[in-house]
Amino acid sequence: SVIQMSAFVSNAVNSPNRSQKVNLEKKGWVLETLVNKYTEDLPKRSVPSVNARADEGEVYLVTGTTGSLGSNILAQLLSSKSVKRVYAFNRVNSKSTPVQRHHVTFVKRGLDVGLIESPKLVYAEGDLTAVGFGLEKGLYEEMRASVTHIIHAGV
Fold first, then answer.
1. Model confidence over 47-102: pLDDT tens digits?
2. b/e for 95-108, b at 16 or more Cβ within 10 A?
3. DSSP letter assigned to residue 4
């Protein structure tokens, strides 16, 4: 299962010298088979060329941008000249708008509040476990077609 695979990889990374009492060559083949199985339906993406136009810029999807780590990452990305767009993805909250929540977070963390009005910033609220992340189809397709980097800073 995906859970068993991730547990094995996590243990191997966290304790590489610990004997896991398994045939690593065979386990490697099994892991590769599982990765192929669970990624076969993902859309094919070409690897960006090293010679890609500089004006295309990087496009990030960042989760958890109202948290401590996520808000600092968001501020850094919005300040970067190489970043064209940032999708700030958070859970739906009916008590306040994404702009209001980011404003509170940026003030609390001493970050430049002006950044939350950046034309680079696109707010997205949804559910990572839902089909299409629970987003409006147009926004989801836009993200699928343009995101070059994903940072999962949410809990």
1. 555 444 445 789 999 999 999 999 999 999 999 999 999 999 999 988 999 999 99
2. eeebeebbeebbee
3. H
> Cα(65)–Cα(87) distance, rounded to whole angstroms?
9
Residues 146 and 129: their CA atoms lie apart, in Å, by 21
For the chain, give the longest Cα–Cα distance: 55
**DSSP annotation string for 37-96:** HHHTTSPP-PPPPTT--GGG-EEEEEE-TTSHHHHHHHHHHHH-TTEEEEEEEEE--TTS
Q: Which amino acid is at 89?
A: F
CA distances from 25 to 4, 30, 31 (A): 17, 9, 10
Q: What are 92's two structure tokens? A: 């739906």
Residue 70, judged by CB atoms within 10 A of its CB (0-12, 13-18, 19+), counts as buried
